[in-house]
Amino acid sequence: MDADPFSDILRLTQAQSLVTGGFLAGGEWAVRFPAPEKIKFFAVVKGHCWVDVEGLAQPIRFETGDVGLLAARRWSILSSAPGIAPVDAMDVFSRAGSSVAQLGDGEEFAHIGGHVLLDPISGPLLLDVLPPWIHVRASSPQATAFSWLLERLLEERKMEQPGAQLASAQLAQLLFIQVLRAHLAASGPLDAGWLRALGDPRIAPALRLMHGEPGRNWHLTELAKACAMSRTTFATHFKAVAGVPPLTYLADWRMRLAGRALGEGAKSVAALARTLGYTSESAFSNAFKRVTGSSPKAYRTRALARP
Questions:
Q1: pLDDT digits (tens, 9 = 90+) for 12-35
Q2: What is the CATH classification number for the domain harbouring 286?
C-alpha cells in the first residue's frame, strides 16, 4: 500500500480520540463549558441547540448530526436558545456521576462529547495548523458518515457490551478523522503548510514517496517526475503550498521521526542515523542539533525522563 502522509502525522502526534460524556436536555436550558486543555469535540445526536464560542460574533445553530471541534482554549455555551443564563458544566456532570447528565425538563435534545489527546512533544505539529473552531454541518457532503458513527457511539454507551470502551474510542477516532477530512475539503484556501500540502493532489505523489522512504536520498528531479511536472514548476508549487522547499520538508520530517524514535529509546543513535539516510552519526547529530537545539543523546535522556 502507498504511504499515507496524513496517517503518518496522526500516528506521530499520537492523536487519540475519547468520548467522555454527554447529556440530555429539554425545555429551556443552557450550559457553559470552560476553556478546554485539550482539543474538544461534540455532536448533536438529537434535536438542535445554539452554540456560543468565545471570539465568535454570534451564536451558531446546530442541528441533529452537526459536529463541532474546538482546538483553542475558549469557553463555549450550549443552549436551547440564546440569552438563557447558563449553569456550569462541571457542576452538572459532577452531580450526574456515572449516569447521563440531565438539563431542563425532557429529552428533546441529546449531546455527546469528548476530547483528543496529543503527544506533548509532537502534538503541536497538528494543533498549530488547526483553526480555533470547526463546524461541520450534517447537511454538508463531507458529513455523510457522521450519522452512522454517532448512532454507533450512542449504542455503545447505552448497551454496555464487552469491549464497549475500546469500540467507543475507535468510533471517536473515526469521527475525528472525518472532521479533519471535512475541514480539508470545505475550508477553502489554507495557509501554506503541511495540512494544505496534504490536500493538494498535484504534489501528493511526492509526499507519498518521501513518507514511504524517508531515508532514501531523494532528488528533486525524481520527485518532480512523480508529479508530472518540470523540476522548476514542482519546486515552486511545492514551496507555495507547503511553505518550504521539498527537500526541506523531507529534512523536517526526518527530524520529527528522529524525535519520536529517540523518545521511545528503541534504536541507537547510529542505527537511527542510517535509517533516516545520514552517512554518519555525526552528520545526523549535527542536523538534529540545528533543528532542536539539543544533541540526540541529550534529547533522548530528557524524553525518557518524562513521566
A1: 998 988 888 888 999 999 999 999
A2: 1.10.10.60
